[in-house]
Amino acid sequence: MDSKYYLTWEEYLAEHPELEDKPTQAIAPKIQKYEDAMFVFIMDLLL
Amino acid sequence: MDSKYYLTWEEYLAEHPELEDKPTQAIAPKIQKYEDAMFVFIMDLLL
Amino acid sequence: MTDAVTMTNERNQLFRDLFSGKTPKRVPVSNPATQDFAIQYAGLDLAECQWDLTKLEPVYDKFCQDFFTDTYPGGSIRIPSHYQLLGSTPIVMSSSGFMQHPEVVGLLAEEYDEFIASPYDCIVEKVLPRLFTELNGAPGKVAMSLAKAMRAQSDDLAYLGTIRAKMNAKYGYAGMIGALTEAPFDFMADFLRSFKGISGDVRRYPDKVAAACDAVLPLMIKKGTLPNPSMLGYTFIPLHMAPYLRDKDFATLYWPTFKKLVETMASMGQNVQLFVEQDWMRYLDYLYELPENTIMRFEYGDAKLVKEKLGKKHIISGFYPITLLQTGTKQQCIDKAKELLDILAPGGKYWFQADKSVINFEAKGPVAENMSAVLEYVHENGTY
Amino acid sequence: MTDAVTMTNERNQLFRDLFSGKTPKRVPVSNPATQDFAIQYAGLDLAECQWDLTKLEPVYDKFCQDFFTDTYPGGSIRIPSHYQLLGSTPIVMSSSGFMQHPEVVGLLAEEYDEFIASPYDCIVEKVLPRLFTELNGAPGKVAMSLAKAMRAQSDDLAYLGTIRAKMNAKYGYAGMIGALTEAPFDFMADFLRSFKGISGDVRRYPDKVAAACDAVLPLMIKKGTLPNPSMLGYTFIPLHMAPYLRDKDFATLYWPTFKKLVETMASMGQNVQLFVEQDWMRYLDYLYELPENTIMRFEYGDAKLVKEKLGKKHIISGFYPITLLQTGTKQQCIDKAKELLDILAPGGKYWFQADKSVINFEAKGPVAENMSAVLEYVHENGTY
Asked: Dihedral (C-alpha) C91, C95, C96, C99: value to the nearest 10 degrees?
């Protein structure tokens, strides 16, 4: 899915170099969780 | 607190006449809860 | 192990068997009535209970106590709070407290190209501000409305989830989880172009309709994907527009992306339950092409023909006419259940559900009594 | 009743007595160490545990097991996820995993008039987009960032709340709740004008500073208000800037709105706990004017003088120097606790807390052992 309103973790990380020295294995699932929650929330509005 | 970004229930209800035939005693606390939660969230960002 | 845990395990096994094509111990049964029915049945105010969810636990307890079902009878529910916070126009609460879906146009015909280029961007930038008044205005207000609404929905779903967990623990229901998505064509019709709009588009610019369905397919796949696919989860896809299309439009515009959607879900190990709304009898050969063990809950049509054509490959459900619960005697209602059991149960691959949801309850009407009798009958007579 | 419930009841009574000006059965004790300390003490990675909160339950369990305290040692915590989702510049995680507050300017000097006219509007429209990069951009992105962040924080707080409830149930802590707010002048300094900025403003346009403090007072009152005021709740107000002001600037710019804030809280039946940071000895006569039983936790200063001047009217706390836990022997640490008990406990109105929070833990250092000894000592020797 190619959208400026939805980033995969890899896309997000590329835009956030400040996270490079951080525990990305703990951060990735959390960032992705809310990205996906937002997507589901919005799509549910149209279903 | 006079702000276009924070409405009391009375102000909200005045802007939402569609709620007049609805159970406002159940709606008011819920609308107010999220208005207050938003306020607290934003202010916590500056504390 | 408590009795309820034992029952949950048994019921989980019924559905594991059903979904994997084995004949289960007995026909699994789902109560067709919804939360709306349950609230009225408890004698409470429909609108009030949907706003004040703390009233719902005794509502569900009575509902679960009085009507047999193998699955939690909560269903997928539209909760009013977040719609209100967004200024929703496509989903609104009627004065009697039902959540209704008026005809809306979220996407203009001249926006097709933009939509096709990037459907999610277009949804965020054009469709949502058009359909939800609070998402159209000063950026700060829009942001706060979205944030409040998302938080409210999250809280509401969490609260309903705790009620569900309590009822599952008390009544031993199967531990089902579901994700909701739509056929790309239906998605384009329902909130974006409207019934009337898409009907015109099919004639005027079928290529754009086809391209839009292609473009939105990845979103529909993503939306229908369960976080952890399991034998007890399924993707629920209600089907709307096909019966209103000409055969050739169905073949070129509806079917290709819908088929890809179901095939993709199946290839990811996700069960799929189609709610085959209206009459699809002229499309049975298409449905046959869908992956093995696709669950198909039918509204109208010929149950015998469906069993014959699809019943060996797919899991059949539905057909039980809920209008009969309103108009028939208890014996007539049971006879109908027997008739469907006789047609659909042989050989397995059958799940007892009704043709649609029961949302209305009249205190003086026969629905509750008839429905209870039918659910008990199928429970007791569905053993293989 | 379980032992833990009995302990909770006893501890609740300690604080009910303390907050209402009665002498409790013994001096209540709060562990000065924080979640940061607890994570390091458990040998886990600080940054990782703040992102993955599921790691925290055993962390807290060990923390609660090893250090005596009457109140849950969670404290108010800055969780990184929502700051990250907002692109926060005023609160960032350091490479060692501590949440830090770099100097920022959220409000420009030329925006004072706009702020004074409507502080909350100005915060939403000017301050937030300046301080949080994800709140500055296309409206759709801003809205989604705010929504995700608010949802993430809500989920995180709910999760920490379940850990807290478990620890309270297991260790029988007092059932305290708190709300956080600031003195209007501190609020203007901390995230809006910065230390340097406000210091210049005090000289250049004191009238605007005073007007801004007046304007923001209602927000500070609202922010500090607990949903349900109770004898076990308090509004926590950390005080920052006063020691850096000249007496006359304190009198005209800091004190009036701060005093109104505390008086308003008290008049609403809310307990107030001030964290009197740095050295306020030259302001003791001002502090004396605050409502009876205002809780004042001091960082530096003369404990004897404070007890003498304020100790009959107000509740005194703090003063215990956490640096001693690092540099002293166990006996020296205990002696210091004894010294403060001897000064501050007589006549009641004393709560044992340290002069600041312990956030760092060195595995080879003496802090954990000294802190444990001090907390035990006060627990055992604080009986009235």
From this structure: 0
CB contact under 8 A, C140 and D147: no
Q: Do A44 and C180 touch (CB under 8 A)?
A: yes
**Spans of chain B below 50 pLDDT:** none
What would the pLDDT profile of C62-90 be if each residue is shown by its tens digit?
Answer: 999 999 999 999 876 899 999 999 999 99
Phi, psi for residue C261 in degrees, rounded to 5: -60, -50
Partner-chain contact A26 D48, CB within 8 Å = yes
- Confidence band (pLDDT; 50, 70, 90) for D1? low
Token output for D334: 């205990």
Query: B27 to chain C: which residues are within 8 Å by CB?
Result: 51, 84
- Which pLDDT score is estimated for D78? 92
Of the candidates C139, C140, C147, the beta carbon closest to that of D147 is on C147
Strand C350-351 relative to strand D177-180, pairing: unpaired
Q: How confident is the model at residue C342 (pLDDT cuts 50, 70, 90)?
A: very high
Determine whether the interchain pair C148/B23 forms a contact, defined as Cβ–Cβ distance below 8 Å.
no
Distance in Å from the first CA to the final CA of chain C: 26
Whether D76 has a pLDDT exceeding 80, the answer reads no
Return the partners of chain B (3 or more C-beta pairs < 8 Å). C, D
pLDDT at D302 over 90: yes
Q: How many CB pairs under 8 A join B and D?
A: 54
**Which chains would you list as touching A if contact means 3+ CB atom pairs under 8 Å?**
C, D
Q: What is the three-class DSSP state of D81?
A: helix
Among candidates D191, D192, D222 on the partner chain, residue whose Cβ is nearest the Cβ of B1: D222
Burial of D349 (0-12, 13-18, 19+ CB in 10 A): buried
- Partner residue opposite C150 with nearest CB, options D139, D142, D147: D147
Confidence grade of residue C231 (pLDDT, cut at 50, 70, 90): confident
Phi, psi of C100 (to 5 degrees): -120, 160
Q: Residue C273 and residue C262: Cα distance in Å, rounded? A: 9
Strand, helix or coil for residue D261: helix
With a cut of 50, which residues of chain A have pLDDT below it? none
CA proximity to C226, closest of C180, C260, C262: C180
Q: Where are the alpha helices (DSSP H) in chain D?
A: 3-19, 35-41, 46-51, 56-66, 80-86, 112-117, 119-122, 128-131, 139-171, 184-187, 194-204, 206-224, 247-249, 255-267, 284-288, 303-310, 322-327, 330-344, 367-381
Chain C residue numbers with beta carbons less than 8 Å from the beta carbon of B37 are: 148, 151
Q: Do chain B and A touch: 3 or more Cβ pairs under 8 angstroms?
A: no
Lowest mean pLDDT among C63-77, C309-323, D323-337: C63-77
CB contact under 8 A, D142 and C139: yes
Q: Is there a contact between D219 and B1 if contact means CB atoms under 8 Å apart? A: yes
Calculate the CA D142 to chain-centre distance.
Answer: 30
Determine whether the interchain pair D190/B47 forms a contact, defined as Cβ–Cβ distance below 8 Å.
Answer: yes
Dihedral-angle region of residue A12 (phi above 0 means left; psi in -120 to 50 means alpha; beta otherwise) = alpha
Q: Which residues of A touch C (CB under 8 A)?
A: 1-6, 37-47
The proportion of chain C whose per-residue pLDDT surpasses 70, expressed as a percent, equals 99
